[in-house]
Write a structure and sequence with these properties.
It is built from three helices and nine strands; from the N terminus they run H-H-H-E-E-E-E-E-E-E-E-E. Strand 8 and strand 9 form a beta hairpin.
């Protein structure tokens, strides 16, 4: 069967329609809007939707004092069963929603990254599971900011 431009456009249109009706498109757009937000509370609200946060067994390993905010190493480990994703927020950053990492159920739920921090702030880790969303925070004092 020959793939024509018309068939490719028709297939893409049908796929977009299926995604939009399944709710995946709504989730993708909400996360994109949360990434673009410059306000922590608004970004968190867009990210969570109607979901509530609970305390959970999440460890954040980060320096108490970061001499250079341009590269702050952090490691987040979730011991919560069935961890699906780990998301990172930095409260006082110009764009507080940093990243979401989707976790394969066959591996340990640990992520290690370097983030930019404009000023002293809390690093917020949110873990998504079938049981809900769980949160942990850790403050990092930044002596020289890394964001504009």
């Amino acid at each position: 069967m020959e793939i024509t431009r018309r068939k490719a456009i028709k297939g893409a249109s049908l796929a977009a329609l299926a995604l939009s009706s399944s709710g995946l498109m709504k989730t993708a757009l909400a996360n994109a809007t949360a990434f673009d937000s410059t306000d922590y509370s608004e970004s968190l609200e867009l990210f969570l939707g109607d979901n509530e946060l609970s305390a959970g067994d999440i460890k954040i390993k980060a320096p108490e004092v970061a001499a250079n905010g341009a590269t702050v190493p952090i490691e987040i480990t979730s011991s919560i069963e069935d961890t699906q994703s780990i998301s990172i927020f930095v409260e006082n950053n110009p764009r507080p929603y940093i990243a979401t990492f989707h976790i394969n159920p066959r591996i340990e739920a640990t992520v290690s990254v370097r983030v930019k921090m404009r000023e002293t702030s809390n690093i917020v880790a949110i873990v998504k599971t079938d049981a809900g969303h769980f949160v942990a925070k850790q403050s990092v004092k930044v002596t020289a900011g890394g964001c504009v």
